[in-house]
Amino acid sequence: MQSLNIEVNTDELIGRLRKLASISDCSEPPPAVTRVVFSKTDLAARKYLQSLYEAAGLEVRVDAIGNTFARWVGTEPNESAVGTGSHTDAIPHSGMYDGTVGVLGGLEAILSLKRAGFIPRRSIEVVMFTSEEPTRFGIGCTGSRAMANAITLEKLANLVDDAGDNYDVVRTRAGFSGTFESVRLREDYYHAWVELHIEQGPELEASSLDIGVVTAIAAPATYSFEVIGVGGHAGAVLMPKRRDALCSAAKIVLAIEYLANKSFSPDLVATVGHLQVHPGAINSIPSQVRFSLDIRDTDMTNRDDVVAEALAWAGRIAKQREVEVRHQCLNSDPPATSSPKIIDVVEAACACENVTHQRMISRAYHDSLFMARIAPMGMIFIPCRAGVSHRPDEFSTPEQVAKGVAVLARTLASLAES
Ligand code: GLV
Ligand code: MN
Ligand code: MN
Questions:
Q1: Which of 90, 163, 208, 261 measures 20 to 30 Å from 374, CA to CA?
Q2: Whose CA is nearest to atom 2 of ligand 1?
């Protein structure tokens, strides 16, 4: 191993994170961020990244759906590369660290290795994945799913946003072209994959630790529900005659919460975070409601059992209230396990950098869930204040970010030599 003195340029990195946060559609100022995939703002953020990659002398490739690869070419360019990266899309009203730390931190890891005089044998590549967040198309990680052959290309092309436009149309309008088939990566494309991310939970901060070494990523699933009742005049239709779609949906939502609370698994979490009411008028009985269900567990069988129970409850509520309930499974993914070899490499990097760490699971999902299908995978977590994420007050200190980047840099260096 080449001896390395890694010096992260923390000020520049935080400056870039702030600049990226300023490219936002949020009604509130930064650090509140909204950046939905394929919006003008997403494209502006991509342009900013491109300028950074060019300045760093990296070779940039953009695939047919906008996944962006910036490569530091190694001395053996035909060998499988070492990959890192994350996403820069941001859910409405979120914070400035989710995903961005992995992309800009990946770039800074490369820059710090360059400054240290490291010469990589394998190429090192930083990836910005398209659409890790499910905001626009209802399903997360579309970029990495497509790379890892974890979604049929037909299903991907036909995902529809709230405006009724499909993925294919929207990505074309955003300026991305080429066949969906070309997005898939060969099984030997990456020798190893490592993602740096904020923890999005409270454990590291509570234990005053610098780094989380991820051993597994919990299994996520997403469903959409539609409740069809009967609308009518809010003054004229008396209560016994009502078949209110929203009241029925509310019962189902509370049943889901009840089932999640009573699950034996402490890792089972269920969230209804998006609900649309039709016709959405003050004085009109809701005739139709659509809502989402995001449900996860480290134990996939338990997750699916809870979904089955929730569907049974929904059926009973529908019968009682004389409404119709339909559901659709958008994704139902198995968990992913980190590579023991990468866990060892990350832990060795922590020792070299003199930072404290613990092994932990990721309750949030990440593009690494899908990269694990085509490469040995690992993840490096840094603490975030009070475990807060997907909120404007999401925060990690510059020192915490810098430690994560230093560990990432050493990990990439070690993997690029192996
Ligand atoms: C990723 O953003 C997740 O919801 O876990
Ligand atoms: Mn997120
Ligand atoms: Mn993320």
A1: 90
A2: 133
Tokens of 289: 């409601």
pLDDT at 1: 60
CA of 174 to the centre of ligand 3 (A): 22
Q: Torsion angle of alpha carbons 356, 360, 365, 371, nearest 10°?
A: 80
Residue keyed to tokens 């060892």: 344
Rounded Cα distance between 289 and 276, Å, is 6
Which residues does 381 contact at the CB level (< 8 Å), separation at least 6? Answer: 197, 198, 199, 204, 211, 212, 213, 214, 360, 362, 404
For the Cβ of 225 lying below 6 angstroms from any atom of ligand 1, the answer is no
Chain segment 281-323, per-residue pLDDT in tens: 999 999 999 999 999 999 999 999 999 999 999 999 999 999 9
For the CA of 93, the nearest ligand: 2
Atom of ligand 1 nearest to the CA of 133: 2
Q: What is the pLDDT of residue 3?
A: 82
Pocket test for ligand 1, best of 271, 366, 367 (most atoms within 8 A of CB): 366
DSSP 40: H
> Which residue is associated with the tokens 């475990």?
387
Spatial separation of the C-alpha atoms in residues 33 and 41, rounded to whole Å: 11
Give the DSSP letter string of 87-156. E--EEEEE-S-TTHHHHHHHHHHHHHHHHTT---SS-EEEEEES--S-TTTSSS-HHHHHHTT-S-HHHH
